[in-house]
């Protein structure tokens, strides 16, 4: 797959059980933060607010497929584990965005957790069934810029 956005997964000691294992829900939180970084970098909120002034705009997850590839453990004696999230935005259909995301060990790039997450945009509580041309253009520009650079860090 082409270019991706890479962000830091900011772990906390409380993300791990007393036995040092990452709680299964935590990668979803790291993935959510990364998706909002994509939204910010692509300027999608900014464009939607310009196209629909005053509208309430919300991202809603409609489907998640989560694959734990390796149990994520806190290193002995440590209070956090350095990890990164890679996020790809798949070519966009008319009304939803599909994100492919990976949680990686920051030291050796082992893929720990993978996810496919489908998101729709609600405008004033209604699913945006077809993106306005300006939204499609900002998503295409974002994807083209990532594909040209290969990767963008955050």
Task: Give a short overview.
The chain has about 150 residues and is of the alpha+beta class. The protein contains 3 helices and 7 strands, in the order E-H-H-E-E-E-E-E-H-E. Strands 1, 2, 3, 4, 5, 6 and 7 form a 7-stranded mixed sheet that branches.
Characterization of this structure:
- The two termini are 19 Å apart.
- α2 packs antiparallel against α3 (133-149).
- The chain is built from three helices and seven strands.
- Helix content is 27%, strand content 34%.
- The chain has a single domain (4-153), classed as Thiol Ester Dehydrase, Chain A, CATH 3.10.129.
- Strands 1, 2, 3, 4, 5, 6 and 7 form a seven-stranded mixed sheet that branches.
- It has helices at residues 26-42, 44-51, 133-149, and strands at 4-9, 57-68, 83-89, 96-105, 111-123, 126-127, 151-153.
- A hairpin with a 2-residue loop joins β5 (111-123) and β6.
- It is an alpha+beta fold and 154 residues long.
């Amino acid at each position: 797959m082409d270019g991706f956005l890479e962000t830091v997964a900011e772990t906390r000691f409380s993300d791990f059980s007393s036995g040092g294992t990452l709680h299964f829900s935590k990668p979803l939180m790291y993935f959510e933060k990364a998706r909002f970084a994509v939204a910010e970098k692509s300027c999608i909120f900014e464009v939607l607010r310009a196209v629909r002034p005053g509208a309430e705009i919300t991202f809603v997850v409609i489907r998640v497929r989560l694959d734990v590839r390796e149990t994520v453990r806190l290193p002995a004696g440590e209070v956090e584990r350095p990890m990164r999230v890679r996020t790809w935005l798949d070519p966009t259909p008319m009304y939803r965005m599909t994100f492919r995301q990976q949680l990686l060990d920051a030291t050796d790039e082992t893929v720990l957790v993978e996810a496919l997450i489908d998101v729709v945009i609600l405008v004033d509580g209604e699913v945006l069934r077809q993106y306005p041309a300006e939204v499609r253009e900002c998503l295409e520009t974002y994807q083209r810029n990532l594909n040209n650079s290969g990767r963008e860090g955050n």
